[in-house]
Please model this.
Amino acid sequence: MSQRFDVVVVGAGPGGATAAFELGEAGKRVVVLERGHLPRYKACGGGLSLGLLQQFPFPFDPVVESSVRSITYSFRSRSVRFELPPGQICMVMRDKFDAYLLDHARAEVRQGVLVSRVRELADRVIVESDGMPSLEADYVIGADGASSVVARDLGLRRGKRVAAAIEAEAPVPPEVFGRYAQAPVFIFGRIRAGYLWIFPKATHLSVGIGAYRPRPGQMQTVLKQVMAEYGISLEGVPLHGHPLPVYLGRERIATGRGLLVGDAAGLVDPLTGEGIRYAVKSGRLAARCIVEDHAAEYQARIQRGIGRGHALGLLLAQLFYRLPILCYALGVRNPLATSAFLDLLSDRVEYPEVVASVFSSLPFYLMTEILAGMAGALGRKEVRDRIRSAVYGEYV
Model:
């Protein structure tokens, strides 16, 4: 005999947990189905803005692993480091973060449940699981990742594009950990159409690599080689691979009663690979559409709020990977561009504003560097530093 709910959420990641929280606050009867047992490991860099977390009515201090005080960008033999204002970026582990977020949702949570089939009828959806009674609901939210069963059974995301990533949780000696504590590193120019990263957690380093269309075995080899150069041995450390789905705005991500969020909808940033923020945003938007009884508008709202920005992000990614030296010199090294991307991560702006800010800042950046360079060449280092500090503020 089936059980009835207002909404079935499949998947307990940030998108599913956010949707469950918002729906529960609105008085909906919600059940969350998770194939694993929380807390469970999820491969993810785990970097996100404190501004995003402040949108929730409860603190996340118990699951913040570390705060970020600087960011280093490396391109081949060059590198540049930016100091960040306090309270901007933090690091989390997804096992703790997901479980903590779901703990605050007014929803029934069923763990160890493998959803086998989802059917949509005119007046309800039916969700079937192996060895358990079927569930009926007005709506189903697919938050079950890039290989979503909900998407498959509802005929969604047929034309999806997917990149790939590999991550490892690396234990390192104290002297190596101290080098990267509160100071993540982004490494470009070592793999085509991709990058590597070193993210500090409370007691270890999360390292990884992501790329579009890598050759078989290439990412594993490059990851181990580059991390060894940075003093991080991956000998005997498990490597976790996972897809990075990219939403192109052409594929359907919703039906009348089924809505995809997060990775299931392909809402991963095509330039940075960031996924948590878009999972939270889409989970909140899906819940709002259901509460307002406007589920049919979900796809259009996603396209307006996220899809158009993703299209610009994809163009920026293509530009960067085709002209990496130029983009590194004029974009990555530009502190004003870093400021714009921090605003993006904090959900204060979207890609159109970032693109406008980056390009409009170029004349100021070039003039500043010319004047600072002249002062440095004349031996006036204090003048050079004052020039750069006056323009870049806290980022130098």
Notes: The mean pLDDT is 90.
